[in-house]
Structure formats: C-alpha cells, structure tokens
C-alpha cells in the first residue's frame, strides 16, 4: 500500500452519492448479466459508458480492482459473485444458465471473458485478500463463491467497517496539532512508512506516543485505529490472517493501524515483525520506555526502525499548554502557564483535558496536578498534604536545608533553562534528597511539609507492592512510578530506602547478579528523574556509596532534645482538646522521638475520652509509659510520676 500521499480520500468519491456508487456497479453488473443469459452486452455497455461520463471519479469497483491488483477476469468474477446480493434477478438468471442460483468457478470460467485458472488459487488476490471465499475449498469448480459482506457493502458505497476488526480496535482521536518536536517524529513516521513499512515509536508517555502515531495516519489520509497487542492471537497463522484482514481494511476504509505493545504476550512482537513486512498494512507499533519483559526483548531482535519520542522541554510544554487553553477559550497569565509547564509534564491528551477543566473554573495548577494520579496504580499512595512549616520541629540548619530543597524544586526551570545550567551539566533535571535519622525523628513528616509548600502531591511508595521476586518486575514497577511522578510533578517518597538502594553485594549466584542489576537500574533512573525524590533511611551506612554520590541533598534528622520535645508536646495536643492541669515540661523529660510523642498524645486522648472526657496528666503519663515500653524502656519517674511539690 502506498502511504506517501497526503491527500484525503478521493475527492470524486466525496462528491458522489451512495446512489451513484450503486448505479455504477449495477450498470457494470448488467453487462455481465447479458453474458449470463446469452444476450448482446453492447446496450448494457453503452449505458455504463454514458453513466461513467456523467459521474465524476472512479467507481468503487474501479478502486477495489486497482487496490487489490485484480485482472479483468478477477474483477468480473468478484462482481458477478456479488450479483445475487446486489440485484435479486441475478440469482435466478444464474440458476437458469448453470442450475445453481450463485456463481461457481466453473461458471465463471465458462461465461466471463479472459478466464485464467490461477484466479482462485489461495495466493491470488480474490482469496488471499478474502474478497471471495469458496464455500468448500476441496471442490473449487462446483462450490459457491461467497463474497465477503464488507466488500459487497463497499462496492455499493455503503460506509461500514470490518465487524471482526471493530471488536479488536477502537478509533483513535487525531490531535488538533502537535508541538514541533512531536510533529517532527510524526513526519519521520510517514517517511519511514514509504521507505521501510513498519515503524516502532518508543517513548515515556504512551498517550502522547499514540497521538503522534494518529497524526502520522491523518497526514496520509488514513483514519487511525488502536489495537491492543494483548487482544491479538498468538498463533502464527491466525495472526497472519488477522494482519492481512487489517491490510484489506486499510485499502477499503483508508485505515491506519496503531498497535499498542503494552501487555503484549511473550513472542508476539517478533511474530508481528515477521508477518507485517510481507503485508501492505500501514502500522505503527507503540511501546513505553519501561524496562524488561517480552516487549523489550522482541524489539531488540526486530529489524525495523525504532523512533524515540522525547519528552518536551519546559518551553515547548508552555507553548502546548497555551495553545490548548486558547482552544478551550480561556486566558491564563503567561507566568502561570510557565509555572505549570515547568512543573507538570503532562501527556498531550491530559493537557487538553486540563485546559477544559480550566474553562470550567478550575485553576491551571490544580487541573494539571490531578491528571496523572491514576497512573500510580496500586504501587503507592497519592497524598495531598496539608501540614506547614510551623508544625516542623527541627534545628535551624536542617530547616534551612529543607527550604533550599523547596527552592531547587520551585525554580528548576529558571536556573536550568533560563540561566543555562542545564547546558553545562550532564546530570538530570531533578533533585534527589536523603532524609537520614532514627525512627520517629520527622523524616516522613518533613517530606509532607515540603510537598505542601510546593503545592504538589506526595507519592508514598509502598515497597511491598514495588519489590518483586521475579526478574525485571521491580524495575518495571519503579519505572511506572517514576514516569507518573515526572508527568504530574509529584514528590516521590521512598520510606526505608535502604531496602531498595542498599549496597550491592558480591556476586555469588544468579540472585545476587540480578539484585545488583536492579540497584544499577534504580541509580540510573533516579539520576535521570526530572522531579523531586525524597528517600528516608534509619541506617545511612547501609546505603550504596554510588547512590549517595547522586544525591543533591542529605538532611540528617537529629533525635529531639528536651526543648524540641516540649514543642512537640505542645503541637501534639489540638486546641479543641479538653485538658486539666497539664505539665508538658515534665512530659518532655521522657526520652521520646517526635513520632512517639504524637502516638502517646493520641493514645492519651482515647484514654481521656473513656474516662470523663478531660485529658489529665495521668492519661498522658500512662500513654508515655506504654510508648517507652514498646522499645523495652522504662519511664523516667520525673516525667511520669506524681507531681513534685512546688
């Protein structure tokens, strides 16, 4: 199939009505009917010539004959086999001539001009394209030749589609425009189609990649349809037949195919690679950048071009956002657009959805912030935090480091792009910070404060869902998290990061080797990450040295001293809590971390609610003793004993 034309489907076809299409086909059928009944075909041929002169463009039968390279005999065989479905008298006329109300190959050889025996071989167009099907392939001469319903509808100008393919595919929306970087990739797809056929698009945002493929289809006048690889048959013959059917639909309905390789079953990708080059189907396969799996391995051995779809830079994203907002009929100040584009790297369809939400009164920042939340799946909890700096009890040095971390995330675009630091460094655009300290010293709480100050979601990674015993699965799950966080400007939080970024072990067996590969991938992905990643650990010494070198910031969270503990106690008791005769200074004597103080305050409140509804020192002292006992410690009597005399 030629896919270099940038024209829309035939202009003559657009000007003709369905009635005119049918009239042309029926007029040509009348010529063949004259041959069936033994009459003179000249009058019917004259009527056909007159109708052609009055009707612009080729008939549908002309188009089919040209598209599938039919000989004059094959063309006539197809039309006469379709005759009983087009004109009721044709079946009767065939029965009077041959004894059967349908066309057989024997009758076609006897009645139609320029016959040739190979017209009904399985490699000839009529059967290889499933235009006709012999009812009994073991009796080619005497069996009815059954036309495909899709083909019959097409011959008379009825716009329909292949029923089987409709169940396997769905229309893919063509984007109203593409940013220049993506438009260049779409143009390259068209060029590669003409030169090499099958093309693979690979990128970090599947929805954007599919839109580029759709735009390439539209450029050459094809309607894009999306097929999921997981829905395709895995056996070679069935797959080949389906791909051939897709190619036929491309010719009949001007369809271009986009095959989504995510969730492709093992072995399917190389199988498609073997089948497609032998067909004429305009096909783009799309795949994400996520590592591992059968897809990656299949692509490595596929002798087809793989085009990389890059992420857009902040400047090009800003232009994309601005165009989407204009189409939605809303005006957003340029600094606000630049701020959103510098933080949120949304896929192209999400940009349009966000713009529509802005048109309905949502702020641009909020609309962008909530688009990628669903992409995290079950691998992490997405949290919208509400705690501010006033709740964070830390020494001034650590507070200064955290505020500098916020500044780095907030002004990334200005420093890296406008001031030129990105061009002077090979490092990634993101920021990776390690929060190290004993359990309960406020590491996770500080991450919540940072995310709230940046007005970003916090993605709290669930390690039990990420780490997998099967080779490659951990990398794929982490890649999904990193991609979603990068799209949505989210803050990634890995609690107990030493479980993922621990020291690589000496290779003693295959498990060690794969574990080291896993850590190596994580280090590379963390460095390339364009957002803010926060990792916490209770054991900094357990972390891989190569990992710590890649960190932008390391904040050490000290165990709280007595003044810090007093502030924590003060903050842990809400203003609405009924209290009586509390001495928080005495409670601060107890050697508790911030997390333990919060837990003790909550436990004491439950005790108070069950004991008259007023919080007293006895409730707090009991909760402190229980909290200390968790670690096998005993409370200081000064902190929990009877009040000392004044």
Q: Please report the distance between the alpha carbons of the first and last residues.
A: 97 Å
Strand order of the largest sheet: 3-5-6-7-4-8
Which regions are unreliable across 5 or more consecutive residues at pLDDT < 50? 1-14, 506-515
Which fold name fills CATH's third level, the topology of the largest domain? Rossmann fold
CATH class of the largest domain, named Alpha Beta
Query: Could you describe the largest sheet, including whether it forms a barrel?
Result: 6 strands, mixed
Whole-angstrom Rg:
35 Å
Number-wise, the strands total 14
Structural domain count: 5
Q: CATH H level of the largest domain: which superfamily?
A: P-loop containing nucleotide triphosphate hydrolases
Mean pLDDT: 86
CATH architecture classification name of the largest domain: 3-Layer(aba) Sandwich
Count of discrete alpha- or pi-helical segments spanning 4 or more residues: 32
Kindly name the structural category. Answer: alpha/beta
Organism: Cellulomonas terrae
Domain AAA+ ATPase: 429-561
Keywords: ATP-binding, Nucleotide-binding
InterPro entries: 26S_Proteasome_ATPase, AAA+_ATPase, ATPase_AAA_core, P-loop_NTPase, WHD
């Amino acid at each position: 199939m030629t896919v270099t034309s940038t024209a829309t489907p035939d202009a003559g076809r657009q000007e003709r009505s369905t009635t005119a299409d049918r009239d042309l086909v029926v007029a040509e059928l009348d010529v063949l009917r004259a041959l069936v009944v033994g009459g003179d075909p000249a009058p019917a041929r004259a009527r056909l010539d007159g109708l052609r002169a009055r009707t612009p463009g080729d008939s549908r039968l002309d188009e089919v004959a040209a598209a599938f390279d039919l000989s004059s005999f094959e063309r006539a065989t197809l039309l006469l086999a379709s005759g009983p479905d087009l004109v009721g008298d044709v079946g009767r006329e065939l029965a009077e001539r041959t004894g059967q109300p349908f066309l057989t190959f024997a009758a076609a050889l006897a009645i139609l001009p320029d016959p040739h025996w190979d017209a009904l071989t399985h490699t000839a167009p009529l059967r290889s394209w499933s235009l006709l099907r012999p009812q009994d392939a073991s009796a080619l001469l005497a069996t009815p030749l059954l036309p495909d319903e899709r083909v019959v509808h097409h011959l008379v100008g009825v716009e329909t589609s292949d029923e089987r393919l409709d169940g396997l595919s769905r229309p893919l929306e063509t984007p109203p425009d593409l940013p220049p970087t993506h438009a260049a990739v779409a143009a390259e797809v068209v060029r590669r189609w003409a030169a090499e056929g099958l093309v693979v698009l690979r990128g970090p945002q599947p929805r954007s990649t599919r839109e580029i493929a759709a735009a390439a289809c539209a450029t050459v006048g094809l309607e894009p349809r999306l097929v999921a690889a997981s829905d395709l048959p895995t056996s070679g013959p069935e797959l080949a037949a389906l791909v051939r059917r897709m190619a036929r639909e491309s010719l009949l309905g001007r369809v271009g195919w986009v095959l989504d390789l995510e969730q492709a079953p093992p072995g399917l990708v190389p199988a498609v690679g073997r089948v497609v080059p032998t067909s004429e189907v305009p096909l783009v396969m799309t795949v994400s950048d996520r590592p591992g799996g059968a897809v990656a391995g299949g692509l490595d051995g596929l002798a087809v071009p793989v085009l990389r779809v890059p992420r857009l830079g902040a400047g090009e994203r800003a232009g994309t956002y601005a165009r989407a907002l204009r189409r939605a009929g809303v005006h957003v100040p340029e600094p606000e657009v630049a701020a959103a584009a510098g933080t949120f790297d949304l896929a192209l369809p999400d940009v349009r959805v966000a713009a529509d939400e802005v048109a309905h009164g949502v702020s641009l920042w909020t609309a962008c912030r909530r688009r990628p939340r669903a992409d995290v799946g079950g691998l992490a909890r997405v949290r919208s935090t509400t705690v501010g700096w006033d709740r964070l009890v830390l020494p001034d040095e650590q507070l200064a480091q955290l505020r500098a971390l916020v500044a780095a995330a907030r002004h990334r675009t200005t420093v890296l792009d406008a001031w030129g630091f990105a061009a002077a460094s090979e490092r990634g655009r993101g920021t990776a910070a390690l929060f190290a300290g004993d359990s309960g010293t406020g590491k996770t709480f500080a991450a919540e404060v940072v995310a709230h100050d940046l007005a970003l979601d916090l993605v709290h990674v669930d390690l039990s869902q990420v780490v997998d015993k099967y080779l490659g699965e951990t990398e794929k799950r982490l890649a999904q998290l990193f991609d979603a966080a990068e799209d949505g400007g989210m803050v990634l939080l890995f609690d107990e990061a030493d479980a993922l970024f621990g020291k690589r072990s000496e290779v003693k067996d295959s498990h060690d080797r794969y574990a080291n590969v896993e850590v190596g991938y994580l280090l590379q992905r963390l460095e390339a990450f364009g957002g803010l990643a926060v990792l916490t650990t209770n054991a900094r010494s357990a972390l891989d040295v190569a990992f710590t070198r890649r960190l932008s910031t390391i904040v050490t969270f000290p165990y709280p001293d007595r003044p810090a503990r007093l502030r924590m106690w003060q903050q842990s008791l809400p203003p609405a809590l009924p209290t009586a005769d509390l001495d928080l200074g005495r409670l601060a004597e107890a050697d508790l971390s911030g997390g333990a103080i919060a837990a003790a305050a909550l436990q004491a409140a439950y005790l108070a609610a069950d004991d008259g509804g007023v919080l007293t020192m006895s409730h707090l002292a009991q909760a402190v003793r229980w909290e200390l006992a968790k670690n096998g410690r005993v409370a200081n009597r000064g902190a929990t004993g009877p009040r000392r005399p004044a």
